[in-house]
Amino acid sequence: MPQDLALPPEDRRASSPQSVTRVIRLLEALCASPEPLSLADLSRRLDTPKSSLAALLRGLAEEDFVVPADGAWRLGSGAFGLASAIGEARRRLQSSDLIREGMRRLAARAAETVLLAVGDSDGDQLTYVDLVESRHAVRYSVAAGDRRPLYATAGGRALLATCSAEAVADYLKRVRPERLTATTCTTVRDLTAKIEAARQAGYAQTIDQAAEGVTGTAAVVRDAAGGVVGALVIAAPSARAQGRLPELARLVQDEAAAISRSLGFR
């Protein structure tokens, strides 16, 4: 008989894969609360039976990850020790390495060039600061350090979508959009609608806007404090991107979220 099946029912539940997720959510709930939480409070917040949580709390208490406090629970020294160790490991692994790793994953999954774009200090343009090129003979090519206008790029619209409506309006009043291709969107009304659509969707997608024959799909990466690190962009020849637009949107959103989590964003 497998060792875990020899355990009492409540302990088998505590050792199941689902319980790993519950332990993480339980610790996150205690971390977010300024006051100790009772078993009933935790059950409501996590939508989990009290019996299941009680088994997890007993196990965590044995390792001092949680401690009882007047009929409730709070984080213990074990949790703070682990947090310190994780923080030290996080400092050793630089953010740029985590972002680069995610860019490589995305380039492999999308089979297209992947870029990281950051907004310039003047708030009018973006700069591509890193890239992983597609292995296709025909691919979008850009150099690190190249700059593009926000309004005409997927990365720029994704960045603008994180700003307030007032900030977007100020930007569109300040810049004078140029028609970079035959289909570049240049009117304030249309650009406002495109940026708002990106805000609602969680990603931006442009087709032949900044350059003929180029489709961009972008989502923002955030750090532990919720700040915008930059925009993750898939850049592909439009002819190859047709028929893949929803897929590219899903891929860039998934990887931007994964990178953000690795940077501590919750």
TrEMBL record:
Domain IclR-ED: 81-265
Pfam families: HTH_IclR, IclR_C
GO biological process: negative regulation of DNA-templated transcription
One term of GO molecular function: DNA-binding transcription factor activity
UniProt KW keywords: DNA-binding, Transcription, Transcription regulation
Keyword Membrane belongs to the record: no
Domain HTH iclR-type, first and last residues per copy: 17-77
Domain of life where this protein originates: Bacteria
InterPro entries, alphabetized: GAF-like_dom_sf, HTH_MetabolicPath_Reg, Tscrpt_reg_IclR_C, Tscrpt_reg_IclR_N, WH-like_DNA-bd_sf, WH_DNA-bd_sf
Name of the protein described by the UniProt record: DNA-binding IclR family transcriptional regulator
Originating organism: Novosphingobium chloroacetimidivorans
